[in-house]
Amino acid sequence: MNSPKLRPLATLVLIVTAVVSACGTIESAAQADCTSIGWQIGSKGYQDCYKSRLYERKLDYSLPPGDKPSPSVI
């Protein structure tokens, strides 16, 4: 089971799992923000709150305008 061919595959699976599990964090945080202030899931006010909080959180995690990511050394 310690095959050199399995190591890259196992690494790839771990990376994909980490990326996919991280995708829900912004959405769940926006949901938690709106429910913590009293909005009921499914109500009109909740939908508006969720959309605006999701937009704000995506802006928080995005690159500034004109900033380009630099290539990794790794």
Description:
It is a single chain. This protein is mainly α and 74 residues long. The chain has a domain of 38 residues. Helices cover 66% and strands 0% of the residues. It has two helices and no strands. α1 crosses α2. The longest helix has 31 residues. The protein is elongated. The two termini are 26 Å apart. The mean pLDDT is 79. This is Lipoprotein. Keywords: Signal.
Keywords, separated by commas or semicolons:
mainly alpha; 74 residues; 2 helices; elongated
Provide a quick synopsis of the model.
It contains two helices and no strands.
| Uncertain stretches | none
Which percent range fits the helix content? 55-70%
% residues in beta strands: under 5%
How is the quaternary structure best described? single chain
Organism: Polynucleobacter brandtiae
Signal peptide: 1-32
Protein name: Lipoprotein
Keywords: Signal
Secondary structure layout plus pairing:
Blueprint: H1 6-36, H2 44-61
Helix pairs in contact: 1-2
